[in-house]
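Schema walk-through. Below, the input block comes first and the output block second. Nothing else is stored per chain. Lengths vary across the set, and this one has 289 residues.
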Amino acid sequence: MVIFLLLSIVFSTLTVSFFKLFELKGVRTFEAIVFNYLSCGIVGSILADKTVFTQSVWATSWYPYTLFLGFLFISIFLAIGITAQRMGVSVSMVAAKLSVMIPVIVAILLYKEQPGILQLIGIVFSLVAVVIMSTGNQTENNQSKLWYLPVLVFVGSGMIDSLLHFLEKKFIPAYSADTLVTTVFLNAFLLGSLALLVGIFRGKEKPDLKSALWGIALGIPNYFSMYFLVKTLEVSGAGTYVFPVNNIGIVLASTLSSILIFKEHMNNRKWLGLGLAIVAIILLSVHAS
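--- output ---
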């Protein structure tokens, strides 16, 4: 389980770092995200024992969930990318990973995983940290006006984690983790392609080979970040432990990479929010561990 967890952290950090590269290289974020999911689907199909096409997944009872997840994936991934570009990698990752409180609450309510007082305090701390990181300082590129971006990432990421945990509980191992994840990615590509085609037809988008190639490259770490998270859940079965530990690792690793590689500026407010985020995730994981 530990190996799967570490691999999920590494690949998640690589994934979000791509968005800063997109900004530097002039890559169109939405088009890259769409082709990223094509790449994810191809990688998943190559590695799977059985492809999604030979298993008639569209006829299963869980397929409608993967359609909704596909919509959430492409929407929230775009929000994460924009947040990373406009507010910094650290802000986008804190918002995404503090959403751990949402699947923890769902696990408590639906799966009767009993919370401790420290977990309840951690939920409060996580909300405070999101508010601090979202509002920022007025003097930094009017970041306070973009408060809705990390909030959207926070809520959407929590919904994704909760649905993944639900599918893992209900449908795995009847269907393997790679089948489920690959189906979600292919649905995200199909939905994104439709939106991209509409944009091209209306003259708001135009094909860009460079963005498509960058997106295909992004899909490789993105696939493995999600695959190893689902594998960790499959092995451990304890969402109240897996999500917090996974998320604190990603927050720390992505913040470190943003400072060392992209020279991101961390003001006092961001440091305070980051500190509260780390404390919150630790508290959320204490009871389960």
